[in-house]
Amino acid sequence: MRTQSVWLVLVLLTLGLTLLSCIEADENDPNAAVGRKDMYIVVFEQMPIVTYNGKIVGLRGTAKYFSEHWRKSHKRAHVSELVRKYKAYLIKEQDAILEKFFGHDLCEKLYRYTHLVNGVAIALTAEEAVRLANFPGVERVQKSYKVYKSTVHTPEYLGLPKGVWAQMGGPAGAGENMIIGIVDTGIDPTHPSFAAGGLKPYGPLKKFRGSCDVATEFPRGSCNGKIIGARYFAAAAKKDGAFNASLHFASPLDGDGHGSHTASTAAGNYGVPVVMNGFHFGNASGIAPRARIAVYKALYRFIGGSIPDVIAACDQAVADGVDILSLSLGPNSPPGGSTSTFLNVLDIALLNAVKANVLVVQAAGNGGPYAKTVTSFSPWVLSVAAGQDDRTFPNTLTLGDKRIIRGTGIAPPTAGVPLYPMILAQDAVAGKGDPALSPSDCQSPQLYNKALVRGKILICTYSFDYVFGGSTMQQLEKTIKTLGAAGVAMVVDSDTSGGKFEPIPLSIPAIVFPNSVDSQTVLDYYNTYTKKDRTGKVLTWGATATIGNGQIVTYTKAVQQVALFSSRGPDVKDFNFDEADVLKPNVMAPGYLIWGAWTPIGTDNPAFAGQKFAMISGTSMATPHVAGLAAMLKAKYPTWSPAALASAMVTTADVTDRQGRPLQAQQPSPNSTPFLQAATPFDMGGGALNINAAMNPGLIFEAGHLDYVKFLCSLATTKEVLGATKTACPVRIGVATDLNIPSITFANLVGTKLVPRTVTNVAPLGETYTITIRNPGDFVVTANPAVFTIGVGLRNKQTIAFTVRATKVSQAFSFGMITMKGSLGHTVRIPVSVVNKRLK
């Protein structure tokens, strides 16, 4: 047992984790708890570092200075000594409480949390968890839960080269000295998107206190200045028995691809050539190409991540001194274990990150288009929806009768000018191969007569097996190459399966027809020119065609649509899915078919196995766009709070296209083309990210830690809030809608309510604003004053009293918009979302 203990301590010290003075009791120990042990996070009553107010015996000599200066100067050396002392105190108290509870120190602490949360991750039986939750010195015990992973063109699409980048000295200055913390699946340090060479090398940053975990597959030098730090957190995954070192890598190396992709989207180098299958698809750039990347690996391929690992990663990131925290992750549903989604242990940790002046950007989730699927809950977190931008990948099939059928497919054309014979996969079957495979899917070359297929365009089917089964485009590509076919044309067996198709780059001539109408046109043409005998045997093939070049990308110059998969509001306040008076998501950014860095060993998407770049979709891809902009905003406005940074992006977002028409949201349809309807705030939050406008917002909505505490006090008991935030509720609590955020949401408006909002002028000049309001038929919003002049300096704040009055009973949300137009050209928007379940 002694040897095992020493080995465990050495391993954990090697990993750089602040862990373990004890080990878990042996199952045969009569003093050990009986029953199955699961992972729990134990939160203690004492304050974590970022909320410490100095009221601890033995630390009074430095407490006042610490509490006054932590928020603004916690990166300074003289404060670091205070942090060290208080951290040592917390660890001592943690051990004392657990030793009293167990009667011994035979407990394995997977993690100690000290910065954002004062707690430990520990294995407990259900009975132990109940008893420990009521033990003196313990605030709460929450069971672990799982979280899951929730660009070539987007810099140009978002107007960066001639806009923000130009203002910052070009890509070489965009995001200078900013650090984006990426909590994800790790990073590929050899990727050119993260190279540190060039004309302007990366020097050290004194404000960053992080380190770099070194391993055989992540050698010294992997943290090169561009990658300023890299850690990995897998204690919980190991405890679950889900971690496999050969598969998941005990290092920051990305074995999945997802982490490298998000990191490159946020802050990848400028102008990195994207080459796949020998074709140059353009040059990739991160949104803030000069920002630094700090990597915190807490998600793993195939298994996702456990909340103790994720919180440890966030805790370390804030302690290290990151400026922005980017989380392309979230649970599948509201976590249990608390009376409120806002009080779950991750959201409280993120609240404390905000208290430490770190903006948290989180993916809204991929559960759309259905309501209440957002998995980023709290108003102190900026939640990001995914939009589909204006890039399309059209292709054509020219038939022998000169008709042109439009499809899609990022693939090269058939060679030369002549038409090629066409053959249906079922008509080429040779009677060999796996009988479990459908011939129409074209997954097994052995099924077909090679002599018949060679030199022809093979017609295959994009069936449900491609969506839910084992059929892949990669295997299709191998089949075509093995058979020597001239190319492949894919029809669909239903509009539903066609609607699931996402273009991926192929090295063979290929085209896909995602809808049944075009698919049937191709099949009808083939059948018309193919003669068969009475048994169905083909006598002659007469159908011919040629496949166009699908590698030529088309840009429609249209504004974004809310992607079908993007999670929708309303936000929920508990795991019973009761609606909250909070708007989610908050803003939308491009998240559909985004090019980004990949690792050749990545497994997140088999379509890009062995590749250095991938083009994938999700709110995970939208989130780093916002994180990159946040880094540039903070570089320009270093004193702004997280709330101010978020406000600038939300209030300046686009809600209409270039012709003034409302933005659209994709909805399910019976065919491959989604229905489009006017997007609501529950689809896109404030709207589509407008980076150039966000850099000059005019007005911002300010909120701080105490404001968020008051918000929590309006929803939970004073004891719950004190335990979670270590901050007492004020005498006058108010209501949730008092929180000074750039939106107004009532999940159940009764009668008339007053909603105060205070704006702060961040422009260099004073300005006169006129408020206009678009009201639906269910409620009316009025503003007092409706016109105001706001100055600079001490006169740069204005409080507006909005009155929201129910006019008609409704069981569904209605939406309005408050617009403040400034005399110097600024426009500030506040979305309004209201349900009136009764009038009085």
From TrEMBL:
Active site: D184 (charge relay system), H258 (charge relay system), S620 (charge relay system)
Short name of one Pfam family: Inhibitor_I9
InterPro entries (UniProt xref): Peptidase_S8/S53_dom, Peptidase_S8/S53_dom_sf, Peptidase_S8_Asp-AS, Peptidase_S8_Ser-AS, Peptidase_S8_subtilisin-rel, Peptidases_S8_3, S8pro/Inhibitor_I9, SBT
Boundaries of every Subtilisin-like protease fibronectin type-III domain copy: 738-834
All residue ranges annotated as the Peptidase S8/S53 domain in the record: 175-657
MF annotations from Gene Ontology: serine-type endopeptidase activity
GO biological process: proteolysis
Entry GO CC: extracellular region
Record localization: Secreted
Cleaved signal peptide residues: 1-25
Ranges of residues in domain Inhibitor I9: 40-148
Chief site of localization: secreted
Sorted UniProt keywords: Glycoprotein, Hydrolase, Protease, Serine protease, Signal
Assigned protein family: Belongs to the peptidase S8 family.
Listed name of the protein: Subtilisin-like protease
